[in-house]
Amino acid sequence: MLELASLKELLVQPKHIVITTHHKPDGDAMGSSLGLYNYLIQKGHQVRVITPTDYPTFLQWLPNNPEVIIYTEKPEESQQLVATADLIFCLDFNWLSRINELGEFVRAAKAPKVMIDHHLEPEGFDDYRHWTINACATAQLVYDFIVNIMGECELINKDVATCLYTGIMTDSGSFRFPTTTAEVHHIVADLINLGAENSRIHQLVYDNFSESRLRFLGHCLLNKMEIFTEYNAALITVTKEELKQYQTTTGDTEGVVNYALSINGIRLAALIIERPDKVKLSLRSTGDFPANEICKKYFNGGGHRNAAGGFSEEKLETVVSQFKAILPEYKTLLIQ
Questions:
Q1: 291-319 burial, b for 16+ CB within 10 Å, e for fewer?
Q2: pLDDT tier, 3 (very low <50, low <70, confident <90, very high otherwise)
Q3: 58 and 165 assigned to the same domain
C-alpha cells in the first residue's frame, strides 16, 4: 500500500483520471464522485466519472452530472477510458464486484487505484487507500482528502460543496445516524459557508418524486408490510409484477425500508424485492444490532452494522421464508 500523501505530488501534473462508484449509485456515491470530479477539473486534469449502471433522476441535477458516463450504455468507451487512465479513483465501495462487469476492467488496468470508502473489510485491490468505517459518508472522506491530505480547501467551490453536502446528507440519514459526529456538523457548516444551499439540496433530493412513486410507497406500507412484534422486526416484500404495475424507476425503492424501521419499537426492518434477475434485500437496524452480519451470513452481502444489503438466486417466497426463519436466532438481540 502506497502512502496517500504521495498522491499530492502525483496530481501536480495533469492526468487522465477515471472516477467510478458502485452499481445503482445513491446520493453518497454520486455526491462523492462528482464532488471529487469538480475538484480535480480545477487542477487541470482530464476527468470522467463512470457509473456501472443508471441512477435516480433525483440525483441528476448535481453539478456536471451531464459528464457522467453510464457503463451499460457506453461499455466500449468506458473500457477504453479505464484502460488508458493514469489514475483511477474508486469511491464508496471496496470490492470490485460492487461495480459489476466494470470491475474486471478496473482490476486489469495499469493505472494506480485510489480507494476512498467507509465500508467494512476492503478487498485489497487498491494501491492508495483513504478508508475508515467511522466516517458517516464517503463524501466526508473526500472532503478530508481535499482539505487535509491535499491541503487545497480553497478549491472547494460551490459545485464541490454542493456535491459533498448531498453525499453527507443522504448517507447520514439527514444527519440523524450515530456516525453524524460533531466533526461532521463542522464539515457541513463549512460546506454551507462555501456555497452549498442546504434547503434547496434537501428539496431536490427528497421532494422530487413522481406520483407513481408515492402511490407505490403507499401500497407498500398499506398492503405489503408485516410486523413481528415478538421480534421487534418488520418486513416489506415487493414482487416484480408490483414494480411493473407502479412503473417504478431506479431510485423509487430507495428509503422504503426506513419507513418500517421508523415504527416505535422496531429494531430490524427488511425490504425484500423480486428483481428480474435475482431477489434483493435491504436491511436497516437500530443500536448495535448487526444487520450486516445477517446479510453476510445468509444473503451474499454485507455493509454497515445498521444498513446492509444482499441478494439471493432463490425465489421470492423462499427468501422471505429464510428471513423469517432467521429471526428466532436473533431474538435475544432484537428484544433487548
A1: bbbbbbebbebbbbbbbbbbbbeeebeeb
A2: confident
A3: yes
Instruction: Supply the pLDDT for residue 5.
Output: 84
Question: How many distinct structural domains can be found in the chain?
Answer: 2
Q: Is the pLDDT of residue 303 over 90?
A: no
Domain containing 267: what range? 211-334
Angstrom distance (rounded) from CA 49 to CA 300: 28
Q: E-assigned strands of 22-84?
A: 46-51, 68-70
Burial 118-140 (b: 16+ CB within 10 A, else e): bbeeeeeebebbbbeeebbbbbb
CATH code of 149's domain: 3.90.1640.10
Q: Are residues 177 and 272 in the same domain?
A: no
Distances, alpha carbon 177 to alpha carbons 168, 184, 281, in Å: 11, 11, 20
The C-alpha atoms of residue 301 and residue 312 are separated, in whole angstroms, by 9
- Secondary structure (DSSP) of 106-118: HHH-SS-EEEEE-
Do 132 and 268 lie in one domain? The reply is no
The cell for 262 is 421508523
**Statement: residue 161 has pLDDT above 90:** yes
Same domain for 172 and 256, yes or no, is no
Q: Tell me, what DSSP letter sits at residue 224? A: S
pLDDT of residue 4: 85
Query: Which CATH number do you get for residue 242?
Result: 3.10.310.30
What's the mean pLDDT in 80-91?
Answer: 98
Q: Is the pLDDT of residue 227 over 90?
A: yes
SS3 assignment, position 307 = strand
